[in-house]
Amino acid sequence: MKASEFRELTEDDLVKKEKELVEELGNLAFQHRLRPLEDTSLLKKLRKDIARLRTITREKTNESPAQETGA
């Protein structure tokens, strides 16, 4: 997915999507250990999508008003 697609999701949807991607990555990694995948680039794409999603999640939580600090 593209970053713009992740940005359109709510925080709850981002958490759900992250769980799905991590589970999918685990399944593909397991399959790859049993027999080589035809398209090993899927593993790299999934890792990048997870990193992209976590970055956007962090951005959204940092910009929410509940995170204000009173110094």
What are the SSEs and their pairings?
Layout: H1 3-7, H2 11-34, H3 41-63
Short account of what is shown:
By secondary structure, the chain is mainly alpha-helical. 73% of the residues lie in helices and 0% in strands. The longest helix has 24 residues, at 11-34.
Molecular structure report:
It is a single chain. The chain has 71 residues and is mainly α. The protein has one domain: Helix Hairpins (Orthogonal Bundle). It contains 3 helices and no strands. α2 runs antiparallel to α3. The radius of gyration is 15 Å and the shape is elongated. The N and C termini lie far apart (39 Å). The model has no long low-confidence stretch (mean pLDDT 88).
Characteristics:
71 residues; Helix Hairpins; 73% helix; mainly alpha; 0% strand
